[in-house]
TrEMBL record:
It catalyses: a hydroperoxide + [thioredoxin]-dithiol = an alcohol + [thioredoxin]-disulfide + H2O. One of its GO terms (biological process) is cellular response to stress. Residues 81-239 form the Thioredoxin domain. This is thioredoxin-dependent peroxiredoxin. Its EC number is 1.11.1.24. The lineage of its organism: Eukaryota, Metazoa, Chordata, Craniata, Vertebrata. One of its GO terms (cellular component) is cytosol. Gene3D superfamilies: Glutaredoxin. The keyword DNA damage does not apply. Belongs to the peroxiredoxin family. AhpC/Prx1 subfamily.
């Protein structure tokens, strides 16, 4: 007796093809690297304002910073900047009032100088600092102090940033010089250059009227500097310059007003004692 013939093969239909693809989909998702999925998610999800601070022109400005790279990833140059020692000399081309001019440290002899570094032009935190210092430059000038900002960008990039309206991510007209450190030598001398990233940390240096470095502030990339605190520090150092080894505690910026009020109070008390006698 012959065996019955095998049943005919079912014809492949579009529906059965879709069914097989649906069955394979979980397997593909399982095998797909999770990093790729995170990449898809990052592309679809709009970046937050904080994340935008790490991006520029479609690329990442601070390599590894968005994922909080370990301190070992930062390669800083040995700093020549030492507190109470002459500030490292510098000279270079700056943009001042929309023009290229040669600028050097000794131009500020006889005045206090706030000299600060920022990572790059056309980024997000940097203009807020520069605009804030520029908007309050008259307060610095009133206490015999000038302000200069510096980055590793060229003077041409500085000028382009200044000529870009603020609503489009530019600086607009600015009241402080922007110094170019295209060779990175200035930022290396001041110990703020990140070799692996190609730009600087947020460093701020207060140099007195004799060219002596009095204060250093170094910030990690996401956080800007305080104009109020910088003014307070300058006033505190100037007070100690006038009064020798006088100690200045917290909020020394207001010490002058407190001192004047104390003197007036003492004078009134003495006059009252004279009248009573």
């Amino acid at each position: 007796m012959e065996a019955p013939p095998p049943p005919p093969l079912a014809a492949t239909t579009p529906a059965s093809g879709r069914s097989r693809r649906l069955l394979l989909l979980p397997l593909l998702l399982f095998l797909l690297p999770t990093g790729a999925l995170r990449g898809w998610e990052a592309e679809e999800r709009p970046r937050t304002r904080q994340e935008e601070c790490h991006f520029y022109a479609g690329g990442q400005v601070y390599p590894g910073e968005a994922s909080r790279a370990s301190p070992a990833d930062h390669s800083l140059h040995h700093s020549k900047a030492k507190i109470s020692k002459p500030a490292p000399y510098w000279e270079g081309t700056a943009v001042i009032n929309g023009e290229f001019k040669e600028l050097k440290l000794t131009d500020y002899r006889g005045k206090y100088l706030v000299f600060f570094f920022y990572p790059l032009d056309f980024t997000f935190v940097c203009p807020t600092e520069i605009i804030a210092f520029g908007d309050r430059i008259e307060e610095f000038k009133s206490i015999n102090t000038e302000v200069v900002a510096c980055s590793v960008d060229s003077q041409f990039t500085h000028l382009a940033w200044i000529n870009t309206p603020r609503r489009q991510g530019g600086l607009g007209p600015i009241k402080i010089p922007l110094l170019s450190d295209l060779t990175h030598q200035i930022s290396k001398d001041y110990g703020v250059y990140l070799e692996d990233s190609g730009h600087t940390l947020r460093g701020l240096f207060i140099i007195d009227d004799k060219g002596i470095l009095r204060q250093i502030t170094l910030n990690d990339l996401p956080v800007g500097r305080s104009v109020d605190e910088t003014l307070r520090l300058v006033q505190a150092f100037q007070y100690t310059d006038r009064h020798g080894e006088a100690n200045c505690g917290i909020n020394t910026r207001y010490y002058r007003k407190q001192k004047s009020a104390l003197l007036v109070g003492n004078l009134v008390a003495k006059l009252s004692n004279l009248e009573m006698s």
